[in-house]
Amino acid sequence: MRITQGCFSFLPDLTDEQITAQVQYCLDKGWAVNIEFTDDPHPRNTYWEMWGLPMFDLPDAAGIMRELAECRRVYGDRYIRISGFDSSHGWESVRISFIVNRPKDEPGFRLDRQEAVGRNLRYSTHAYAVERPEGERYADR
Amino acid sequence: MNFQSTTVRGKDRYKSGVMEYKRMGYWEPDYQPKDTDVIALFRVTPQDGVDPTEACAAVAGESSTATWTVVWTDRLTAAEKYRAKCYRVDPVPSSPGSYFAYIAYDLDLFEPGSIANLTASIIGNVFGFKPLKALRLEDMRLPIAYVKTFQGPATGIVVERERLDKFGRPLLGATVKPKLGLSGRNYGRVVYEALKGGLDFTKDDENINSQPFMHWRERFLYCMEAVNRAQAATGEIKGTYLNVTAATMEDMYERADFARELGSVVIMIDLVIGYTAIQSMAKWARKNDMILHLHRAGHSTYTRQRSHGVSFRVVAKWMRLAGVDHIHAGTVVGKLEGDPNTTRGYYDICREDFNPMQLQHGVFFDQHWASLNKLMPVASGGIHAGQMHQLLDLLGEDVVLQFGGGTIGHPRGIQAGATANRVALEAMILARNEGRDYVHEGPEILAKAAQSCTPLREALDVWKDVTFNYESTDAPDFVPTPSIAV
């Protein structure tokens, strides 16, 4: 399967040239750009690991693309996303977020159903990847 | 117009009998509205032979303290403070016989935090007043002091996006069709297909409550199975607006509680439940971490005609105060009423922290929202993937685009329809961010995206020529000079 979190998951994987253009868009808006990675793709896993601090005040995308290349070199078997953060009043949150790296194989999720009172079911979404310890989840897939 | 005060003062003012409203203190052309005043702008169409100033003063009177005759009991109160004051009357541009009346109301006239109380005055008896042919509430200026007495949207645009983990693009939805007649089991099928195919939300229609063909509990149970299945299939948070509209508050609370118990992220109500019920549900939603979707069912009965009723921009202001998170606010290009400029005005009212006066958008006053949460506008009704560039241009990024027919009517099924919409949207956002002239290159951008997405190609083929070009019934009346500033 292919997880469809983020802004561009329904398009073919973005090329570095396309990623550069999106990063430049964020910088031109005055947003801080953040690189994050994870091997737990649960839709409610909010806090992916940060690859360093968000990058404030950068004039062009090249520096961020270098950081992305470095992050990919170390964590190329995990999900990596880029987000743009807008600190202006009334927003003070993420403005855009998109996946820029995926594990080669995405095993997806199992839906667990627990029968409860009446016809109610308790649902939980279980990522197959997290059956292994953190750091080994996509190692030899 | 007549700019002289005609108010009778001293003891003559309280002599028993009938006195013109403009002589009773409801026409005060020298009055300077206070920062804390509520201001209403009415479009007044007096009966033939009625003096326009008197008609406008009567609107001020009948929407505040006046009755048809002088009463001595006024003298037991600070009557001058409580009288609404019409302070400005302008002829409506290119509409002979109609007048814009600016009326200021002291803040003490209104109960804090109550839309019901506000509207009981402003659109109460006065709309049936015999000396008027027609009356329309065009806009309101709500002072910060009053705005601050309201909860505002239970969740707000920013927190909604954070909760759903969806940023940088409009959200996508679809209303389940056919809107009536599906069983719970079949209904859930449509929800599953649409969400798995790529939509963020599906939606009950306004008149889906609990009918013989589908009891509400059946719908909720099957819908949540569908939502959770789609979530596991995509790794993405999904939602379906479960309509909890019902006959009584007790029923609505019961349904909302069940939706929460099942883990839904969003519930839905209809405008027809009334202002107090809406505010109650907004409080419930805030308390239960629930996004609250409002369908504006019924609004066109009083918003659509320019001469009489209440403008939707006023309803939008009331709903932002009342505390809903989503409101249907028009598509411009779709099947329902929507002049582009007027619609722009509605969207600004929902989403901005400050609305400057913009007569071309029908916005007559500067309006501060004092950091009240933002309200997500929803565009629904007769839109399809082929219009994506226009929708993005006209409506912006913080909007839910609802493709009902435009998803479910896809020749290769609902999932394909959903995928077509999502791909079209992502391709357009990508192009916009790259700095392309996406409005003009829109069809090219879509065609390019369709090369690697068959469902999009099929959608574009089926709906390429569908447009709804009819003349609008509610465009702003203004002269393009900023002369109406308060």
| Rg for CA atoms of chain B | 25 Å
Q: Count helical runs of chain A.
A: 2
Structural class of chain B: alpha/beta
Task: Indicate the low-confidence ranges of chain A by residue numbers.
Answer: none
Using a beta-carbon cutoff below 8 angstroms, give the protein chain pair with the largest interface and the number of residues from each chain: A-B, 42 and 39 residues
Biggest β-sheet description of chain B? 8 strands, parallel, barrel
**In what order do the strands lie side by side in the largest sheet of chain A?**
2-1-3-4
In one word, what is the shape of chain A? globular
Estimate the global geometry of chain B from the Cα principal axes. Answer: elongated
User: Would you tell me which CATH topology of one domain in chain A applies?
Assistant: Ribulose 1,5 Bisphosphate Carboxylase/Oxygenase
Please write the string of helix (H) and strand (E) elements of chain A.
HEEHEEEE
* Helical residues, percent of chain A: 10-25%
Runs of chain B with pLDDT <50, length 5+? 481-486
How many E-type strands of chain B? 15
CATH architectural name of one domain in chain A: 2-Layer Sandwich
Protein structure class of chain A = alpha+beta
Keywords:
heterodimer, A: 141 residues, alpha+beta, Ribulose 1,5 Bisphosphate Carboxylase/Oxygenase, two-stranded antiparallel sheet, 19% helix, 28% strand, globular, B: 486 residues, alpha/beta, eight-stranded parallel beta barrel, elongated
Please characterize this protein's 3D structure.
The complex is a heterodimer of chains A (141) and B (486). Chain A has two helices and six strands; from the N terminus they run H-E-E-H-E-E-E-E. Chain A has helices at residues 16-28, 62-75; strands spanning 32-38, 49-50, 79-86, 93-101, 109-115, 121-127. Helices cover 37% and strands 15% of the residues of chain B. The interface between A and B is large, with 42 and 39 residues.
